[in-house]
Design a protein that fits this description.
Length: 290
């Protein structure tokens, strides 16, 4: 996918533009993307998105569902070939709806804007789809998917309901990060794990043990503090079944298919190892939620 960081990096051509943050690229977002893609070949389906998240620039704390890198991957998988990532700054936040259209949408050749019926933009969220029509752009209103919102998905993940979150995402829930060295305790137990350093602004699901996958392998995933060893710091660790290799320094996206149980301390290390074995077998038997 061609990713531009300013309007001047994209050719001016007739475009159907989907505008939004698209955090998570959930089923509601995908309905909007599909409507833009339906305009091809007469209009070039294009996404205009924002980074960082506008609400964080406006002083609100937002746990993100996806990194920008993952968001762009998901947009590409949906079929989008060109995306303009607008750096959202306090200055951009102060643009009137008319100025946003003149500065961002018109220079790339926007003819049609595709968006959900609740779409708002511009300073103080003053603009809506009616505003775009008054300015002279054609608009396609896309009905919302009931219950599908980034906020709802964040709440489900915070409660560990990864199956319900997957229904709204249209894909398995994920946690993403870079593999870093840990305390190597898993290797001594017979289950070496990949320890993930997760960006601080990403949502991490509720503590517990999950079945999922990573790097093409099923994975038993622990999210929590390792209470058996008196841990205090949150860890995200994945044991990749039937995997041999070195993932240190690699970016890893872990799918979470099913929450198996709470994390817990055990009477002995032998009991811990027995439970990990049961978790691994449950992971072998698990199926993706969507």
């Amino acid at each position: 996918m061609n990713v531009a960081r300013s309007p001047g990096e994209l050719e001016t051509r007739s475009r159907a533009v989907a505008v939004g943050t698209f955090d998570g690229v959930h089923v509601g977002h995908r309905r909007v993307l599909a409507a833009a893609l339906d305009q091809a070949p007469a209009l070039m389906p294009t996404v205009v998105s924002f980074w960082p998240h506008p609400r964080t620039v406006l002083g609100n704390e937002v746990g993100l569902l996806t990194t920008l890198e993952r968001r762009l991957e998901l947009l590409g998988e949906a079929g989008i070939e060109e995306t303009l990532v607008v750096e959202f700054t306090p200055e951009v936040a102060e643009l009137t709806p008319e100025a946003f259209v003149d500065d961002v949408l018109r220079p790339i050749g926007t003819e049609l804007v595709v968006a959900g019926t609740d779409f708002r933009f511009g300073r103080g969220r003053a603009g809506d789809l009616d505003t775009l029509e008054r300015i002279g752009l054609t608009v396609e209103r896309v009905d919302l998917v009931p219950g599908a919102s980034s906020t709802a998905i964040r709440r489900l993940l915070g409660d560990g309901h990864v199956g319900e979150a997957a229904r709204l995402l249209g894909r398995p829930a994920e946690v993403e990060g870079t593999v870093v060295s840990g305390d190597a305790r898993g290797g001594t137990l017979g289950y070496p794990t990949a320890n993930l350093r997760v960006p601080t602004d990403l949502v991490v699901p509720a503590y517990g043990i999950y079945a999922g996958s990573a790097a093409g392998h099923r994975a038993a995933v622990s999210i929590g503090t390792n209470p058996h060893y008196g841990g205090q710091e949150r860890r995200v660790e994945a044991f990749l079944l039937d995997f041999e290799g070195d993932l240190y320094g690699e970016r890893l996206v872990i799918e979470l298919w099913q929450r198996l149980r709470d994390e817990q301390a055990f009477e002995s290390e032998a009991e811990l190892i027995e439970q990990i074995g049961r978790d691994v077998e449950a992971t072998r038997a698990a199926e993706p939620p969507v």
